[in-house]
Write the structure tokens for this entry.
Amino acid sequence: MKKVVASLLSLSLVLTASVSALAAEPVKISKSSQKAASANDPYEPNDDPAFASYINSNVSYTSAISHNKDFDYYNFYAKPGEIKFALSKLSSDSKVVDITIFTPDMKTLKYVNGKANINFSANLPVEGNYKILIGHYDGAFNPTIPITPIPYTFKAIFNQ
């Protein structure tokens, strides 16, 4: 019984620390933290909105869609205004990359897709915590359709 209580207490402390870290102001991810993560995707695990990495305005981020179940979520806190978004695929394949921007209440604000460089802008209507989802839906969640990694780099410019 004491071991169970101690385990639950430890889990509670870890979850509290995680929630506190998610609620913190966005910060640029340092190179030292990137070295500890995957070489192909330094922001994993970010396949779920709850684990989305924070990004800052006017900073380039490089990552990859690595497999059929890999969807990359990113958080950003913004004031009302325009967001300008640019994504470049770092491979010459013809796969479509899908990008969705979600409002603070997780409604779709903008959906765009393309096979090469993707540039768009959108109006951010309210101040709050927005999310960006970058993925590849052809064969998503189907392990019989293998995909090769899709490396990409992106930058978003918004009012912080």
